[in-house]
Each structure stands twice: as C-alpha cells, then as structure tokens.
Design a protein that fits this description.
single chain, about 190 residues, mainly alpha, 10 helices, elongated
Length: about 190
C-alpha cells in the first residue's frame, strides 16, 4: 500500500540522516553539521542523532569525544545526543574523552546533565579513571581539576576543597585524601 511505502521510505531517510550525522562528526565537519541543521531543523535531527552506531557501538558523540572535537560536541549536545550512552566497552563519551586525554572536552561534557557514576564493563567510573592515572605533573593538575568539577557536579556544593591539594603531585597520601573526599561526598548522591 501507499502508506507502507511512505513509512519505509521515511524510515530509510531517518537511517540515512543518522548515518550522515555520524560521518560528519567523524570528519569534525562543523559547517556540514550546521548545514544539516538548517536543512532539516533541530526537531528532526533530535529524533535521529543517536540512531547510528558503529561496530564498537559508538555514536557520533562518542567519536567526537574520543577525538576531542569540541565544536562538534557542542552541536551534538544541542541536538540532545545521549551523553550517557555506552559503547561496546561500557565507556560513555566522558570516559572516552578522558582516556584519550581530552580534558577540555571532559569539561565541556560536564556542563551538561551527566551521570558521573556510570560504570564501564570493568565497574570503573570516571572517578576511578581519574584517581588511577599518574602522569606528568601538568596532566595530574588537569585530572585533579576534572575531579574537582565532578565532585561539584555531584551536587556537593557545600564542599570545602583545599585547592592546595589539587596542585600537589599524586602521591599515595594525596591519592588517599582525594579518595576519602570522593567517598564522603559522592555516596549520598548515588541513588
């Protein structure tokens, strides 16, 4: 019937549109993404932004986060891309960005409603990743800044944080202090 044909054609267009968003994100082509938004409208793209995933179950947002494509991430989040979607490894876009050392990307993602307690397939949260890495002092400072942002994101607004703690090398003593800070201020928000 004509309605079945129109429905199948509509579904095929939706799949093609979702695939196009994915490819554009993979290329970090902001101009093309903005053109797509102008052509189809935000409401149409919101419906399909997460519909195409690759063999590793990565969405367009995962790819953009993995590569640190910050402008593309901003566009995808305006299209309401699922910020907590897991890929094949259980990584959210936030964890993917962190693992690839895109700390600015992590900060951008943290501006949105995000679940910082999401666990990957190993049972690790973003907190575990931050606390388990010990790199150069510069990387540690960035990691600890993210840790602080995460604690504040967990609604620990009354938290008094000793900023000196976030400037020290990540020794076992500092690690213990941070882990204690994490446990004391996040357990109550994990509901």
């Amino acid at each position: 019937s004509i309605n079945t044909y129109k429905s199948k054609r509509y579904q095929a267009q939706q799949v093609q549109l979702a695939r196009e968003i994915y490819i554009i994100s993979k290329e970090n082509n902001i101009i093309k993404l903005q053109s797509l938004i102008q052509q189809y409208g935000i409401q149409v793209l919101i419906k399909v932004v997460d519909d195409y995933i690759d063999q590793d179950e990565q969405t367009a947002l995962h790819l953009s986060a993995s590569y640190g494509y910050n402008l593309c991430i901003e566009q995808l989040l305006q299209l309401k891309a699922n910020i907590d979607q897991s890929n094949h490894y259980g990584y959210t876009p936030l964890i993917s960005a962190y693992i690839n050392q895109h700390y600015l990307t992590c900060s951008i993602l943290l501006k949105y409603h995000i679940n910082p307690f999401h666990t990957d397939h190993q049972g690790k949260t973003i907190f575990n990743y931050i606390l388990s890495n010990s790199n150069t002092h510069e990387q540690q400072v960035k990691q600890l800044h993210l840790f602080k942002l995460l604690l504040l994101k967990c609604h620990a607004k009354d938290l008094v944080i000793d900023d000196d703690l976030f400037q020290k090398p990540l020794t076992s003593n500092v690690y213990y202090q941070l882990y204690t800070l994490y446990k004391e201020n996040t357990d109550q928000f994990k509901q």
